[in-house]
């Protein structure tokens, strides 16, 4: 009986570890951009998200835009998170807004950037001890620490959770690799693993060009809810290792 229990325990621990594995990359599908006039050139190809990110990359490997993380929800890693506006190539750019929404209530939002924001602009969101969040003088109560990203504008409001967009993917999210450096408003930043680049499509999927260059920001001070905390991983690994060791001892006896 002890051997059977040890085997079962090890199996459950393995399942738990597997369940926490990083999700498969989403491999976002891009269309041909309708834009033909941007900083990277005057063609649709030059205005693609890939070409634009190549343009803003100052050193290190280029970000492969086909390899997005598929992450949808996030949480803060400290008392605040900083968002840096990279660029917006969109007819709706003067009116598009960007911010966070409460994971359990998408109607609860806090804005980080308003329409017409210039590249390099930064916005800081504070996560207060009472569960509220604050950006400047704007405070939203009962927000909590689990959230997604949204883009709002004349084309509609879209979320980082596909289920809230009728199953369509309106955001492509990339995690820093620790090697790439980006030019954000004339300031070079390290795109390290603690940062995420969030790129949005701002028009309903049926009528959009699916270029995901309509609003692009870099977020620092958050982590994906799709990846467990290191302490949890270490704990589960210890459980799995202990269970396997128990099995070996019983087998030897």
Descriptive account of the structure:
The protein is an alpha+beta fold. The chain folds into two domains: 2-18 and 232-252, no CATH class; 25-227, no CATH class. It is 19% helix and 32% strand. The protein has three helices and 16 strands. The protein has helices at residues 2-19, 49-56, 230-252, and strands at residues 57-59, 74-76, 80-87, 97-102, 105-113, 122-127, 133-135, 138-140, 146-153, 156-159, 171-175, 181-184, 187-190, 195-200, 215-220, 222-224. It has a seven-stranded antiparallel sheet, with no helix packed on it. A hairpin with a 5-residue loop joins strand 6 and strand 7 (133-135). Helix 1 (2-19) packs antiparallel against helix 3. The longest helix is centred in the C-terminal third of the chain and has 23 residues, at 230-252. The radius of gyration is 21 Å and the shape is globular. Mean pLDDT is 86; it is low at 1-24 and 231-240.
Give a short overview.
This protein has helices spanning 2-19, 49-56, 230-252, and strands at 57-59, 74-76, 80-87, 97-102, 105-113, 122-127, 133-135, 138-140, 146-153, 156-159, 171-175, 181-184, 187-190, 195-200, 215-220, 222-224.
> What are the low-pLDDT stretches, counting only 5+ consecutive residues below 50?
1-24, 231-240
Into how many domains do the coordinates divide?
Answer: 2
Task: Note the gap between the termini.
Answer: 13 Å
DSSP, total strands:
16
Number of helices: 3
Major pleated sheet: 7 strands, antiparallel
Major sheet strand order:
8-7-6-3-15-14-11
Name the structural class. alpha+beta
Strand content: 25-35%
- Overall shape: it is globular
Order of helices and strands: HHEEEEEEEEEEEEEEEEH
Helix content: 10-25%
Please compute the radius of gyration using only Cα atoms.
21 Å
> Please, what is the average pLDDT?
86
């Amino acid at each position: 009986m002890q051997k059977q229990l040890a085997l079962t325990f090890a199996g459950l621990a393995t399942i738990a570890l597997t369940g926490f594995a990083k999700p498969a990359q989403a491999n976002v599908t891009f269309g041909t951009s309708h834009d033909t006039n941007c900083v990277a050139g005057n063609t649709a190809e030059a205005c693609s998200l890939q070409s634009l990110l190549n343009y803003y990359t100052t050193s290190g490997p280029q970000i492969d835009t086909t390899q997005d993380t598929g992450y949808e929800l996030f949480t803060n890693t400290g008392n605040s998170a900083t968002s840096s506006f990279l660029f917006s190539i969109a007819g709706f750019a003067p009116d598009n807004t960007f911010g966070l929404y409460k994971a359990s209530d998408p109607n609860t939002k806090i804005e980080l950037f308003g329409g017409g924001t210039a590249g390099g602009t930064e916005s800081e969101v504070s996560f207060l001890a009472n569960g509220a969040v604050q950006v400047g003088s704007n405070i939203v109560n009962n927000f909590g620490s689990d959230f997604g990203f949204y883009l709002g504008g004349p084309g509609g409001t879209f979320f980082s959770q596909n289920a809230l967009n009728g199953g369509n993917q309106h955001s492509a999210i990339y995690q820093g690799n620790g090697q790439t450096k980006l030019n954000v408003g004339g300031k070079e930043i390290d795109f390290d693993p603690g940062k995420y680049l969030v790129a949005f499509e701002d028009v309903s999927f049926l009528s959009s060009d699916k270029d995901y260059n309509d609003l692009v920001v870099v977020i620092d001070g958050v982590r994906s809810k799709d990846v467990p905390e290191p302490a949890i991983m270490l704990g589960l690994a210890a459980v799995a290792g202990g269970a396997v060791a128990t099995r070996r001892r019983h087998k030897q006896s």
